[in-house]
Amino acid sequence: xxxxxxxxxxxxxxxxxxxxxxxxxxxxxxxxxxxxxxxxxxxxxxxxxxxxxxxxxxxxxxxxxxxxxxxxxxxxxxxxxxxxxxxxxxxxxxxxxxxxxxxxxxxxxxxxxxxxxxxxxxxxxxxxxxxxxxxxxxxxxxx
Length: 143
Prior knowledge:
The protein is globular and about 50 Å long. The chain has helices at residues 3-8, 20-46, 48-66, 86-102, 108-112, 125-141; strands spanning 82-84, 118-120. The chain is mostly helical. Helix 3 (48-66) packs antiparallel against helix 4 (86-102) and helix 3 runs antiparallel to helix 6. It has a two-stranded antiparallel ribbon with strand order 1-2. It is built from six helices and two strands. It starts with a helix and ends with a helix.
């Protein structure tokens, strides 16, 4: 089980179930612990220099995507299908880009908690989610 598996965990909402906020917070703590374990394992296996280079490479790929022009950062779904609202994703993308480029404050929990409304012809959900997962991976990698 990896930290990314914990991040991808989802449960159906049921009457009388656990508090969503409490479960999300607990899963965030478990993911952080798994990521710390993965970081230590990778450091011992690869060495600090290789680990930093790998993390920097991932961060640069994400930053390059997020620096694309607003409205063109991700693939769009067809005009009759729903995707994430472009303007909302672009606001988050700008904030994350500032974090990666200049160290502006953003936490993994803030990235995990991002939710977007839907719009016809919006950004492709899977692509946006994959980039946000990569951002969390980078954040957890640097501790």
